[in-house]
UniProtKB/TrEMBL annotation, chain A:
Top-rank taxon: Bacteria
Pfam family, one: HSP20
Species of the source: Vreelandella arcis
Ranges where the record places region Disordered: 1-24
SHSP domain sequence ranges: 23-134
Listed Polar residues bias regions: 1-14
Family label: Belongs to the small heat shock protein (HSP20) family.
Name of the protein in its database record: Molecular chaperone IbpA, HSP20 family
UniProtKB/TrEMBL annotation, chain B:
Source organism superkingdom: Bacteria
N-terminal signal peptide: none
InterPro entries for the chain: A-crystallin/Hsp20_dom, HSP20-like_chaperone, Small_HSP
Domain SHSP: 37-153
UniProt name for this protein: HSP20 family protein
Gene3D superfamilies assigned to the protein according to its UniProt record, in alphabetical order: 2.60.40.790
Database matches in SUPFAM superfamilies: HSP20-like chaperones
Family indicated by similarity: Belongs to the small heat shock protein (HSP20) family.
Organism: Vreelandella arcis
Length: 134, 153
């Protein structure tokens, strides 16, 4: 069960060119927690500034992708003094195992925290097996 | 808008410094050498911007409700305090659930940041939307930019 969810967006270091580095500074990688529940996996991602409208969650061929634009309404004419968040969007992808029931995934975003529930297929749920007396 | 800062930092100033580029290739985390860098996983992240009459602080604190963050200003130092609860990792009967990843910061935090001089903390306001807090600190009247008319001699 340990490899149910594997992050797929870490690129090999030696392939990094300047162009790719540029890309990395603009797209932020959200921090996630992944927890197993008896009948589902729970994925929690920090995406501050992302709203219900600017969030996109897609499942394609067992690849789950999360993308969200940071929607801040800032007045015109600002200049930056200090920036720790240097990007306009969050994106991250995960490979899902076949144990996850892709049709039953649910998502909600509250205060910039995305919570995804990935239910397990019936055949992979935890069940208790009664031991019969001999 | 915060791209402005980045623009100054990307693009090596010493195009001919092949040795430095080679080292950067081996140590790909470019942020490590950045004076403005914060340790990975700092929570919450902070951006500061300035306009003609205000300084605005953006605090990226996903998962905090407005009442979860305490904002203090004293002697031009802005202090943010709060607590974020970790996602429950145990079942009803108290046994631990398997956790595959734990990247999100949780627990209590305090961050302090120095502000520019000349701000009027009395008139500061803070707003919250979608996990981002915006703190607006107006500049004092005498520090706002003003135009000086040239009088005919």
């Amino acid at each position: 069960m340990n490899n149910v969810v594997r992050s797929s967006n870490r690129s090999p270091l030696q392939q990094r060119g300047d162009e790719q580095r540029q890309q990395e500074t603009e797209t932020l990688l959200p921090a996630v927690d992944i927890i197993e529940e008896p009948n589902a996996l729970k994925l929690v991602a920090d995406m501050p500034g992302v709203t219900h409208e600017t969030l996109k969650v897609e499942l394609d061929n067992n690849v789950l992708s999360l993308e969200g634009e940071i929607a801040l309404n800032m007045p015109e004419g600002l200049s930056a003094l200090h920036a720790e968040v240097r990007g306009q969007r969050f994106a991250r992808r995960f490979n899902l195992s076949h144990e996850v029931d892709g049709d039953a995934i649910t998502a909600s975003i509250v205060n910039g925290v995305l919570t995804l529930t990935l239910p397990k297929k019936d055949s992979h749920r935890a069940r208790r097996i009664e031991v019969q007396a001999a | 808008m915060f791209d402005d800062i980045k623009r100054f930092e990307t693009g090596s100033p010493q195009q001919l410094d092949w040795f430095r580029q080679l080292l950067d290739g081996f140590l790909p985390d470019g942020n490590a050498a950045d004076i403005r860098a914060v340790p990975r996983g700092s929570f919450p992240m902070i951006n500061v911007a300035r306009s003609d009459d205000t300084v605005r602080v953006y605090v990226f604190a996903a998962g905090l409700a407005p009442s979860d963050l305490t904002i203090d200003v004293q002697d031009n130092v802005l202090t943010l305090r709060g607590k974020r609860e970790p996602v429950m990792g145990s079942n009803e009967d108290g046994s631990a659930r398997p956790i595959f990843r734990r990247e999100r910061a949780s627990g209590e935090f305090v961050r302090a940041i120095a502000l520019p001089d000349g701000l009027d903390a009395e008139r500061a306001e803070a707003r919250h939307s979608h996990g981002v807090f915006e703190i607006v600190l107006p500049k004092r009247e005498e520090l706002k930019p003003r135009r000086i008319d040239v009088q005919a001699a």
